[in-house]
Design goal:
The chain is about 60% helix and about 5% strand. By secondary structure, the chain is mainly alpha-helical.
């Protein structure tokens, strides 16, 4: 037990804490259409090239670069249910934490604080969807750049391999190119301005990173969709309807406590830089500013911001602590081995209890019923109303998972498949704007499944041709009294 020093105890407790925080009940509306796609691929042996799931966009080309993790999610769900998906998220978040930790410098207590702050800020993106892989891969890329710039350890050959894997898992690889761009641009400007002490890379080092990045971009073309996969992120980012109406694409709401750690991290970073006694190199400055901007524009980017900025905060905070010391710090490596072991056992037991509760079927079932219309889907499966379905955007993925192929959905979370024009037309119906009932007639909608308190629900209740067939505290289903 002598080897279990206080420093090692702090590290173990920090990572146990991150793992326990990440092992949470699986609650995500978009998870269901990923599971449905994985089921489709496994059962048919084909990766869909066009949309097979909706009544409105069927046959539309679908660039689904996420097909591989979708298969994995479906198979894992089949093996262990939602509990297995919860544990997968915890493992991936902890792995990202390892890369973040290794990109930090300084006192173990400061690094542990930085790791917890990273976890608190990034928790919004911890869901069992393919985008969690971008979270991990960005952490790995950030670590590779750190050891190259600060420790002169060259593992750059891994970057093309990383991008080759990335493009076949998720469309977030553009974030990696942004990080590399900020790194190269910052060091280049520092050197051009005659401040080589702030630039971690020499000109030859920058040239090598640039060449490796070009190879990484070429590797991105090696996927099922070729150049179309490279255009997908630009198409998605440019969608106005997504930015205005889809919650995860909206800006953060800092009145929500869960979204405030992003601000804490930013303000603490600025404070650490100010107290560090050294100038911030431009690569770090561009990375903090760029990823903060991405996070302010869309809350789905907050986790990526935390991955990049937490190590920067700790590095400057370590310099600030060193700058403020007036006497040598007391050694912290020693400790009472048996007492440390007891503390570790208690923390591990509490973490295991939290993981068991979060991954339990009862907790998952309760969370699922709060989020999606489980009872309404049961009613639809049993009563089978006639005609095409109009459904809420947020519920599309779940209804697809539960009811397809008997009932193709009207819309679901695949915003890139539906496009801006369609989503704007959908919103006119969902918000019950003038002419919505005529559109429902023209599209031969037979029944409507939406939120009970929605504008569309209130309007349909006053139209004679529609009849309330089902209602609970969460959902309503209106059916037509006669064919359209």
């Amino acid at each position: 037990m002598k080897s279990l020093t206080l420093n090692r105890l702090v590290v173990l407790i920090a990572f146990l804490g991150v793992f326990a925080m990440a092992a949470r009940t699986v609650v995500d509306t978009d998870l269901y259409w990923h599971l449905a796609t994985g089921r489709y691929i496994v059962e048919t042996g084909q990766i869909p090239q066009t949309d097979p799931f909706s009544s409105t966009r069927v046959g539309t080309p679908w660039v689904n670069v996420q097909w591989l993790p979708q298969i994995g999610l479906y198979l894992l769900y089949g093996a262990g249910g939602f509990g297995a998906l919860s544990l997968l998220v915890a493992v991936l978040v902890t792995l990202a934490g390892v890369f973040v930790w290794r990109a930090m410098t300084g006192d173990v207590f400061l690094r542990a604080f930085g790791l917890v702050l990273f976890a608190a800020a990034s928790g919004l993106v911890w869901t069992p969807r393919p985008n969690i892989l971008t979270f991990v891969l960005l952490a790995a890329l950030n670590y590779l750049l750190y050891i190259y710039r600060h420790k002169s350890i060259d593992r750059l050959w891994l970057i093309p391999v990383l991008f080759l894997v990335w493009v076949n898992l998720h469309g977030g690889y553009m974030i990696g190119l942004i990080l590399i761009g900020a790194t190269l641009l910052g060091d280049a400007i520092d050197r051009l301005l005659g401040q080589p002490s702030l630039a971690c890379m020499t000109w030859s080092g920058m040239r090598k990173l640039l060449v490796v990045t070009v190879l990484g971009v070429l590797a991105l073309v090696v996927n099922l969709y070729g150049i179309q996969a490279l255009l997908l992120p630009l198409q998605t980012v440019g969608m106005e309807a997504s930015a205005r109406w889809i919650m995860e694409w909206a800006s953060p709401d800092f009145h929500q406590l869960s979204e405030q750690p992003m601000l804490w991290l930013l303000l603490l970073t600025l404070l650490a830089v100010g107290r560090s006694g050294r100038r911030m190199d431009l690569s770090d400055g561009l990375s903090v500013a760029g990823f903060a901007l991405l996070a302010f524009v869309s809350r789905r980017n907050i986790g990526l911001y935390a991955v990049v900025c937490a190590p920067i905060f700790v590095r400057y905070a370590a310099a600030a602590v060193e700058n403020m010391r007036t006497r040598p710090a007391a050694p912290r490596g020693a400790g009472i081995g048996w007492l440390n072991a007891l503390i570790l056992f208690i923390v591990a037991a509490l973490a295991a209890f939290k993981v068991a509760v979060a991954a339990s079927p009862a907790a998952q079932s309760a969370a699922e019923r709060d989020l999606v219309p489980v009872a309404a889907a049961d009613w639809l499966a049993s009563n089978r109303p006639a005609g095409a379905m109009f459904n809420s955007y947020n519920w599309g993925g779940y209804l697809l998972w539960r009811l397809w192929p008997d009932y193709p959905v009207y819309v679901d979370g695949r915003a890139d498949v539906y496009g801006d024009e369609f989503l704007r037309a959908y919103l006119k119906i969902a918000l019950a704007e003038p002419g919505f009932d005529t559109t429902l007639d023209e599209q031969r909608i037979g029944f409507v499944a939406v939120e009970r308190d929605s504008a569309l629900s209130r309007m349909l209740s006053g139209i004679d041709v529609w009849s309330l067939a089902y209602a609970d505290e969460q959902a309503v289903i209106y059916t037509r009294k006669m064919p359209p």
